[in-house]
Amino acid sequence: MATAGTRSSSRSRPLYVLGIESTAHTFGVSVVGEEEPFILSDVRRHYRPERGGILPREVASFFSRVAGEAVGEALREAGVGPRDLAGVAVALGPGMGPALRVGATVARALAAAYSKPLIPVNHAVAHIEIARFTTGLLDPLVVYVSGGNTTITTFLEGRYRVFGETLDIALGNLLDTFSREVGIAPPYVVGGRHAVDRCAEGGDYVDGLLPYVVKGQDVSYSGLLTAALRAARRLGRGRLADVCYTLREIAYSAIVEVAERGLAHTGKGQLTLTGGVAASDVLREKLRLMAEARGVDYKPVPKRYAGDNGAMIALTGLLALRSGAPTLEPARAFIRQRWRLDEVEVPWYPSTLG
Amino acid sequence: MVPLDARLALESLGRLPLLGRGAEAEVRLGSYAGLRAVYKLRPPKPYRHPRLDLSIRSGRTRREARLTLRARRGGAPAPAVLAAYPSLGLIVFEYVEGTLLREALRSSPQEAPRLLRLAGEVLAALHRARVSHGDYTTSNLIVTPSGGLVVIDFGLAEPDPGVEEMAVDVHLFRRSLESAHAHLAGPGYEAFLDGYKHAMGGGAGPIIRRAEEIRLMGRYVAERRSVWGSTA
Predict the structure, then answer these.
(1) What is the extent of the structural domain holding A19?
(2) Which of A51, A145, A188, B26 is the most buried (most CB within 10 A)?
């Protein structure tokens, strides 16, 4: 089999892939090419609820409204016509059904209209690939934390293996739900800072207030959420900063501890952080302190690529295409709401673009 | 127990040969009351709030000493505890000779079926002693020169576990096979379960069923909606 490198160098023109992200609240479209600057466009449309959480059907109707213009903008910005594409990549899961269907429908239409291969991409794999690409850490242990995921993973024998994860709710979900219930969100994120971070300012750690639960290589956050809500009610508004501070300290310390266990267990010498919660300065700093004490090379994903985006989907699609991973007939591109990270073969590993 | 001056202990500890450094502890070889001994120290973690850090380290040290002792008295193969100093995060064990199961599975693959079955039997012995381990992986079992297994590291153990805690042990062991010995995950896990069921008797059924359920939890669930990610 020809390697990706020899294949691309034997062609006169670089490959371009358009990627579509629509698993949760972001509709993202991006064009990525094999040559610098690689990410040629990165268009994002965010659904933001005015109050409460996210309703999948509302997200889907928002996505349907913005999809056409987002695709057009991504191609225009990249200066690439749809006929120049080598393929159309789309995140088919995991995520919310109604939201996923919009991205899948757009991808199917594009691929069918221009006779391009449709490249199925797992959203979690894409968060890992954008971290490997942007940090240059090619073989890291990965801490992947977002609204729906809390996973410690690393590559072994052909796939990203799940080394540790949450036993119940995700880290982002814990912080969102808490802030919504105590009335400090939405808006959840302002100026790149989450409501819990803003609330924790001026607070201090309170001994014995909240439970710290690590089970082996896993964390558990549902008991912590319940206890934090109860503490917030009991202590009242005046001490909400202490509850926020303590909640954040315990939630982040637990994920850093299981990451350290992952490093010890797998022997990997590199560490990265990715996913929406990777934008948190406090979490980034805690992991840095841990990595420094262990003598491990650590680089978190740039904040710009922490949250969901189309570039990570296009990047992963391009890597998959170059490695000869299977593509789909557009009509067979079905969404997979619970598509597990460790079901995906990663034949391009450890290479990336550049 | 022999009294120990705190500062003296920690200072002299650093001079002992390092046997290993895990995620949370350093393990050194020394002697204690004339016996070969292992000194296990949980040093402070710079990323945690100092008060949270102290409560985690002292709590786990106390717990580990108590539950190692309980497992051993209940007939499970656990090392003898010679001394424990929770406020220092220090615990002293008898020395157990051997290699980690994680290494043994790599260096002697032909031994894997027997060792994994035995790992199942050892977990059953722990559970019958009314202790759940909390971190039951191939890194926490030592293969002795006579081919037996000794279970170590009770820092996350629980007394009087229910089905849930015992199921987590089964689940954790399965995942440690998947993440560090992927080629063994299928048949290896079967051998482990055989040993566990055999030694556990009738009580094993609900625990294994629950372990299967736990495996399906904690994965991405569509209902987990969140706004994280819209921060860029």
Answers:
(1) 4-128+307-343
(2) A145
How many residue pairs bridge chain A and chain B with CB atoms within 8 Å of each other? 201
DSSP state of A166: B
Are A309 and A274 a contacting pair, CB within 8 Å? Answer: no
CA nearest to A205 within chain B: B49
| Rounded to 5°, angle at Cα A96 from A94 and A99 | 115
Nearest chain A residue to B214, by CA: A167
> Residue length, chain A?
354
pLDDT-based confidence at residue B15 (cuts at 50, 70, 90): confident
List CB contacts (< 8 A) between B176 and chain A.
217, 265
- Homologous superfamily (CATH) for B6-94: Phosphorylase Kinase; domain 1 (3.30.200.20)
Q: What is the CATH number of the domain that holds A180?
A: 3.30.420.40
Give the model's pLDDT for residue B6. Answer: 57
Bigger pLDDT: A127 vs B24 = A127
Q: Do B231 and A189 touch (CB under 8 A)?
A: yes
- pTM for the full predicted model: 0.85
CA angle B228, B230, B231 (to 5 degrees): 90
- C-alpha distances out from residue A260 to A78, A292, B19, Å: 40, 11, 18
- Statement to judge: residues A45 and A151 lie in one domain: no
Kindly write down the DSSP assignment for every residue of A280-315, as one continuous string: -HHHHHHHHHHHHHHT-EE-PPPGGGTS--HHHHHH
Is B7 within 8 Å of chain A by CB? no
| A80 shares a domain with A34 | yes
Does residue B227 surpass a pLDDT of 60? no
For chain A, which residues score pLDDT lower than 50? 1-9
B135 is catalytic: yes
A169 vs B contacts (CB less than 8 Å):
224
Domain ranges within chain B, ordered by starting residue = 6-94, 99-216
Q: What's the total number of domains in chain A? A: 2
At B14, is the pLDDT very low, low, confident or very high (cuts 50, 70, 90)? confident
Nearest CB to A216 within list B48, B137, B221: B137
How far is A30 from A44, CA to CA, in rounded Å? 9
User: Could you tell me the two tokens for A353?
Assistant: 């673009």
CA–CA distance, A344 with A124 (Å, rounded to integer): 10
Torsion-angle region of B218 (φ positive above 0: left; ψ -120 to 50: alpha; else: beta): left
Contact between chains at A266 and B179 (C-beta distance less than 8 A): yes
State residue A1's pLDDT score. 37
Q: What pLDDT, on the 0 to 100 scale, is given for residue A5? A: 42
* Number of residues that this document lists for chain B: 232
The whole-angstrom distance between B34's CA and the closest CA on chain A is 31
CB A165 to CB B137 under 8 A?
no
Q: Which residues of A307-317 are buried (b: 16+ CB within 10 A; e: fewer)?
A: bbbbbbbbbbb
Measured between alpha carbons, how far is residue A100 from residues A176, A232, A275, A341 in Å? 22, 36, 18, 16
Which residues of chain A are within 8 Å of residue B24 when distances are taken between CB atoms? 257, 260-261
Write down the architecture of domain B99-216 according to CATH. Orthogonal Bundle (1.10)
Q: Is residue A352 part of a domain?
A: no
B74-87 residue pLDDT tens: 999 999 999 999 99
Q: In this model, does residue B50 exceed pLDDT 90? A: yes
